[in-house]
Structures are given as structure tokens and as C-alpha cells.
Amino acid sequence: MKPYRLNQLELNTALQKKAREMNQDKMHLKHLVSAPNRLSNYSAKGGGLFLDYSRQRLDDQTMQLLIDAADKLNLTAKFQQMSQGALINKTENRAVLHTATRSFSSTPIYVDGHDIMPDMQNVRNAVKTFCNRVHNGEIKGCTGKAFRHAVVVGIGGSYLGAEFISTALAAYANKAIRIHYLANVDIHNFGAVADAIDPETTLWIIISKSYTTAETTANKNQAIELMKDKGLEPSKHIVTVTSKGSPGDDPGDPVLATFYMYDFIGGRYSVTSAVGAAPLSIYLGNETFERFLKGAEQMDLHAAQAPAHANLPLIAALISVWNTDYLGYRHNAIIPYCSALQKLAPHIQQLNMESNGKGADIQGQMLDTPAGTVIFGEPGANAQHSFFQLAHQGQAFPIDFIGVLNPQYTQYQSCSKGVTNHQELWANMIAQAKVLAIGKDSEDKTRYFSGNRPSSTLVLDDLSPENVGRLLSFYEARTVFEGFAWGVNSFDQFGVELGKIAAADLRRQMADKNQDPDHYFEASDPIAKMYLEMLFEGKI
Amino acid sequence: MKPYRLNQLELNTALQKKAREMNQDKMHLKHLVSAPNRLSNYSAKGGGLFLDYSRQRLDDQTMQLLIDAADKLNLTAKFQQMSQGALINKTENRAVLHTATRSFSSTPIYVDGHDIMPDMQNVRNAVKTFCNRVHNGEIKGCTGKAFRHAVVVGIGGSYLGAEFISTALAAYANKAIRIHYLANVDIHNFGAVADAIDPETTLWIIISKSYTTAETTANKNQAIELMKDKGLEPSKHIVTVTSKGSPGDDPGDPVLATFYMYDFIGGRYSVTSAVGAAPLSIYLGNETFERFLKGAEQMDLHAAQAPAHANLPLIAALISVWNTDYLGYRHNAIIPYCSALQKLAPHIQQLNMESNGKGADIQGQMLDTPAGTVIFGEPGANAQHSFFQLAHQGQAFPIDFIGVLNPQYTQYQSCSKGVTNHQELWANMIAQAKVLAIGKDSEDKTRYFSGNRPSSTLVLDDLSPENVGRLLSFYEARTVFEGFAWGVNSFDQFGVELGKIAAADLRRQMADKNQDPDHYFEASDPIAKMYLEMLFEGKI
């Protein structure tokens, strides 16, 4: 069989050898970064972003091996096939077409002989029309009041992307409508949202592909109860984002509008589909949302077309696999020096860990070491005052620094110590990447910095909708390229199924007890039994 | 020299042997958890909380070895010495007395011959008096309007704890006053806060021990500019929380009130000191804040007094060290099945990683492997729909599940599939811990679950202020015990210093350029030079 994973290639041995070599003193980052033209040789501009990987533990040979691997595995061709509708989600026999949701091209894309591009366009138009009618007051709540709150009811992929983008672009928001997220089935989440809204002026956006997600159904039912309690008509306060023909698309149970989801767009890749379009167009306005799509499209085209050595998400993916499989790092921090990007890390945590955290490859072969890496992060400079002590002197992990050149709030120019706040922020970001790489010797070992701690830096001109779209697409494409290199299916998630089955069993036992207070819990699992009893008892 | 680290003890060899044994099939968690009385033997109640560690990869011998290690290292005695004022922060020659901030005991605690308990009481009284006067309208802004917004200006330890507690206890908040956090020097953070407040009714709480923290100073200066722009008198809108005699405690620069910080309370342990007392008493009311303190005090006493085998934070610490040093796990997730605890993980991330992420031990000896572990987490059930795919089928990591038996919003009792939302939440939590441990075989390897993935479960009766105090103290004590076992100083943070020095150098270059647009940046570090140029150019 033709190799389909990086570690099946002949050059795998050379990469392993290279990794051992990288542990030699002469290969310490403090030496690597001082080579002439290090930055220009280890950075690239493309798709509207700038990526500096000069502080990654790489030399020319390593880069060449990784680029060769990308060529031999046809990674760019695979990305193109994905974008053109190939059924690359093999375990579910589906195409993977999140890129189509933001394509403004007129080229058809066929799935099972059907051109899906008109469907994509129809969804965009339907959302646009609906949002414009909400914004101009044509569509109102059942008591005739304009909508002032939008509650997004959805979990995982039906939540994290919209939260990330709405936080990043809050400065562009239509101030008339506040947005709230109801993801967790924890009644605390519902209670807090219920306290913050006015039901008469609230639009509920229920997002679930199957419309049977347990958490979303439970929250939707609470919302309906609340509306009924207040004498409101739920059908005049709900829109659904779901699959055609799901229980959320039932003419017998009418709602204000239904926007369709398609099985070729996975939840974690869905923020540019109706899943993000509905809440974000309501909150930000459709024009801002389309600018965001256009940025994502630009990076998609870069990912599909740029040669490997100049392809930002591909380079980032190769480095990630190198760091994980060869250098042995187990996690990757994402540190945007930008408060508005505070929800980037939680979104990418889902996108990347759910896509690539796999034990078997796409052919169903167990991997010797599972693929994927743990992603976590908080904004800088905050993180410096939180967990960066460990980043400098504890176990090392690669970091993605993200900088934004021009601040959104340009009116605050007063200086402390001769610099603006924005400059202070940048001084810190530049400094961190530098000293993590270089380190510092010291006789006093509590003040010794080993250095050699890798990072990349990604730079955006500003936090425009287009740049946020580019950033999203960069991380999506990086995740996809990593999955291709690891040889896993980045689009299924069978690992979440077992817990759902076990929860259903426990739910049944709770429901029985709710019906019959004398019901005894099954003793087959004594630990679960104790927790069921403790929950119904209500004390530890 | 007497052993002062777990891995210096003779029983270290036995633990290493045990760890190898745990990799045998017969020691898989699916077998361990089915032993009779597994739960009762591997759980404990104390300090008001319940800890279940039955799904940790431990057997009786391992537990005995760990308890023996705790005895030989005198961990409980060390905790008592800490609470009584011993100078255990050796590198800085300081006592460590966060426990004193919530002690309601009349026993004196001497530091350098001075009883510090009256100081603790004075701070509590001063905050209480001030907050009551704000709440009853005696203290108002300079235009005579009552305060409606409190902005907490502080970073790291002067921010994360208050954010965690104010989010956890938001249901108790005084609805008249909204709280905002201004931590990041990113002007976006300031801009967003400035947009959300009304300066006339805003109280700024500036928190910095030295009152020279670069980020906090820059933000404070922006706040003062804003007030001056609006014609307001800053001295009537500011309180400071700082060290006696710092620039924030300057009679020449008066403010509404100053509450003192002490050098024997580290930032990350300071939320029960004035650092948390000021914002939380304003936001939650002083009565709620004191209930929170009393819960913390109860767990402190448990940590200091309970025998090792029944001491919750000590057991949790021993398991953490076992998982990290012997079983080789590199991170620990914190998954509260409780939306209100959404800021627990970011707080513990700082508390634990900054405390124990160390390369050298307390005697200045380099460690073979750095101490500490990466902490991350999001609330469940959300996390199940985010990164739990990797938790089930990717690389394994230990998880702390946290459950709350009684929900805060008891009015929402309607059922979906026969259960309330709160029960659905619990069904999921119980299910996750179970299937992670047990796994499931499958011919189809994409649906194969290896299991043997460890977790603990911590249970709270409800989300009362007392229980949130107990939870905080549990994690603080666990962190301290871990540090004792690793033999590191959990109270210094020299690892953050190098970055500050490098940032100061870059700041100077930026300030020079601000003064003189023709200024050329130093070429000694070409990478930093490029970023300086890019920032001033304003485009990639």
C-alpha cells in the first residue's frame, strides 16, 4: 500500500535521526536564531497573514525533509480534493466542504452528482434576508416588540465558533441586540441567561444538526417553558439551524425560519455555515459577516494553491507534527496578545483536539502513539502573569504567539514609561518569544533559564472581519493538514459516542426514580449507584 | 542531608517498580474499579467536600507508599508550620500566610516577632466598613452619584482569583453594582471596559503589591485620563490595594481608601486577602464574602489536621505527583460540571503552574525533570462536545471532575427524556468518569476505547459561598502539598523575571522612537528589530 502517513515514509528515519541531533547543544535555539537571515528564511507571508517560525527547533535539513514529506503525501492535492467535494471523511462516507460555505466562486462543486453551491448560496441569502428583516423591524416578537436579545442554543461545534467570532468582532456589533450563549445543560447556564434577558424581546436560535442533541433539546425545552409561562408564542421567537427534515424542520411545529445544515460540514468546521451565519449576522450585521467569510475564503485559496514552502497553514501543520511526533512535545499553547481573541484557544482546542485526537488511522489501523496534541491558552500579557512561570522553567511546550499590529481602539494614545498600552503589549510579546528561545545561564539555579523553548508568531494587520476570517481558516487548514500528515480522519468523532451511551443508561435510571421514588438503582455498577443515590439524597 | 523530596526517599524505587506494574493488563482500571469496596476504600469526606479517587490508577500498595512518603517528608507538619508563620518561602525569606487571611481564630501568628493577626483583622474591618458605606450610599462618586460599576485593575494574582469567585457566586451579587476586569495591557481590554461603564458611577479598584506592575500602571493611567477627560476627580473614584508605603499608598496622591497587602501572601494565593476582599465585598456584599472565607478556613483546618489517609488535598497532591512523576502524565484537566465554575480552571492554572512549574528545587538543585504539570479545563458537559474526543481516544491525561449536588436555580424543574437539566448534567458526569476508566473493546479500531484513563471526582453539596471557599482552599492546599512533595518552593516565581527585563529593553527602544521618528532600532537582535519596524510601520 502507498504510504499515507508521515511515519510510513522512508524519510521518517531521517526525521528521527534529525530529532536526536536537535538535542545537541549546538542545535540550541540560541544558536539557530543567530544564523544570518534566520528570520527571512523561516517566515512567510500569505493569505493576508505573516507567520514567523524562526524560533521553532528546525534547521534547513529538517524543513526540507518536512516539505519533502508534504510532497510525497500529496498534502496540497488532498486539500484541493477536499475543497472539490471528494468523500475524504471515509468512515462516514461524506465529503468535507466547510470551504464551500465561504466560497464566492461560481464553479460548481458536485457531491453525489448534485451541485451544492446553489445550496450554499441559498443559505447565505436566507440568513441575510431574515437578519435584514429583524434589523429593520419587520420581524418582531409576538407582542410586537423588536428583538433586543439573541440566545444561541447549541453546544460544541454549534457554539464555540460563534462565541469566538462574536467576541473577536464585538467592536463591530449592532449595539441594539445583545448575544447570549446557552450551551451547557447545567441549569445554571439557563438560569443566568434567563436572568439577563427580556423574554418578550428575545430571539432563540436553536442549533443542532440532528435536532436531537440531548443538551440542546433540554435547553430548548426550558426556553419554551419560559416563553409559555410569560404568555408568549414560541413559534414567533425561535429560528432553527438544522438538517433538512430533522425535528427542527417540521412544518407541523412552525418557527420564524429554518436555515439548513449539511452533512458535509462538521460541527467544529461550521462557523462559516448557517451555524455561524445566523447568530453572527444577527449580532454583527450581515455585511460584517460576509467580510469575515471573504477573509476565510482568501486563506482557503492560499492553503489550496501556495507551494509547500510558502504555505502558512501547511508549514504550521508540519511543524506541529514534528514537535509532537519527533521532538516529543505533548501540548501546544495558543497565546494571542489580544483580549478580543480570548475565545480563540477554546475554539481551536475543540477544532484541533476533536479532529486529530485519534487512536486509529483513517484505514482503521491502531497508531503506536495516538495522534493529536493538547491545545490550551489564554491571552497575553495575562498568561505571563499566570502559567508562564512553568513555560520558562518547567516542562517545555511550543507556543503560538499571535500579534495584531493596529489596535481597534485608536483613541487611547496616552503613554506610560514613554509607550502606549498597545506598544507595551507588543514589547511583551516580542520579549517572551525571544527569551523562551534564548534562555539565560545563572549560577543560582532558581534563576536559570534553559531556553530552547519553541514558538511561532502569527501577525495580523488589524482585527478586521477579514483578518479574523483568515485566522479561522488558517487554523482550520492547519488542523486538516496535520490530520493528513498523521493519516487520521479529522472529520469523525467516534470517541464521544461511548459516553453518550453510558449517560443514556444513567438517564433512564434517573427517569425511573423520578417516576417512582421507591425505585432501587441497579447494583451492577456500585460506583455509579452511589452517585445516583447521592444525587437524589442531595448531600455528600 | 535529610531527604526533602519524594524522589530522594528510599521508597522512590518501590514507587517506580509499582508504576511499571501498573502498566500490566491486570492493573487496568476496569479491573481495579470492580474490586469490592473500591469506592469506599478510595474516597474520603472532609472539610465539607467529598473526594472520590477510585478511578485513579492506584492499588493499596501504591496508596500505602504514597502515605508513607507523606509521613517521611512530614508534609502535614510542614503545612502546619506554614500556617503558623515559618519562613518557608526560602528564596525570598518570607512567611507564607494566605491561611491567616481567612482565620477567625484568636491565636496570634508571629512574623519577625510581630503578631500579624490584628493586621489581618484590620484589613477585613477596613474593607467591610468601606463597602458598607458604598452600599448605603455614604460614599459616592465626585458628582454625587452612587457607584454602579466597579472596575478591578490588576493582572495575574491580582485578577484571576476575584474573577473566579465573582463568576462562581454571581447569583449572590448585589445587582446594583456591575463588576468589570481590566487585566490586560491590550488597549482592547480598556476600550471594551470604557464602552461598558459610566465613568461618573464607576469605582476603580487598583490592585498591585508594588504598585509598579507595568500593565496595571498603564491601565490605571488610562483610567485617570478618562476621568480627567470627563471632568471627574480621580481621587474620588479610586481605591487601591497595595503594600504599605508603595506609590499607591501615598498621602500626597489621595484616594478613597487603601487596603494593605503583605509580603507573606503571594499574588496567586491572595484572593482571601484584601486583593479579593475589596472587589468581592463590593460586588457580593461583605456578608457573602465572609461566608466564603469561613468555608476556606474550614478546609485549611482539615488540611492541617486530618491524618494523611483522610486528608483530601494531601491525597489529591500525592496522586498528582504519582501521575506526573511515576505514570508520566504531562497534564491535568479540571472539568467542573457547573457553568458557574467556568473560571476555576484558569485560576488553578495560575495557582498551580506558577507555584510548581519549577526547574530547580528549594535548595537550588536542578531537578532531572522539571516539577509541575500543565492544567487546563472547561466546564462539562461542554468539554464533552469539545476536546473529549482526544481524552477518550488520544493521549491520556488525568481529569478532576467536579459535581455540585444541588443546583442554584431550583425553579426550573421541567424534564426532557424524563430528567431535569440538572440530572442530565449528572448523568453525563458519572458516565464520563466511568467510560474513561473502563473503555470498550471493538474490532473496528476507530470505535475502540482503550480505557484506563484516570480521574478523580470532587463533590460539593451546593454552590454556597462556603463551598466555593472550601473548593478554593482545597486547590490551594493541594498545590502546597504537591510543592512540598516535589521539594520546590511553591511561593516564588523567578521564571517570570527574564521576560520583564527583555520587555523593558524593547519598551525603551519604542519610547526612543516615539520621541524621535528618525530613531534607528538596534540591529543586535535582527528578529526583534524586524518586529519593532513592523509595529511602527503598521503592516505585515
Q: What do you see in this structure?
A:
2 copies of one chain form a homodimer. With 540 residues, chain A is α/β, with parallel strands linked by helices. Chain A contains 18 helices and 15 strands. In chain A, the strands form 4 sheets. Chain A has a 6-stranded mixed beta sheet with strand order 1-2-15-12-10-11, sandwiched between helices. In chain A, strands 6-5-7-8-9 form a 5-stranded parallel beta sheet, with helices on both faces. Chains A and B meet through β2, α8, α9, α13 and β11 of A and β2, α8, α9, α13 and β11 of B.
Which terms would index this structure?
alpha/beta, 13% strand, Rossmann fold, homodimer, 6-stranded mixed sheet, 43% helix, 540 residues
Biggest interface, CB < 8 A: A-B, 158 and 158 residues
In the CATH hierarchy, the third-tier topology of the largest domain in chain A is known as: Rossmann fold
Helical fraction of chain A equals 40-55%
User: Biggest sheet of chain A: strands, sense, closure?
Assistant: 6 strands, mixed
* Cα-atom radius of gyration of chain A: 25 Å
How many domains is the backbone of chain A divided into? 3
Total number of strands of chain A: 15
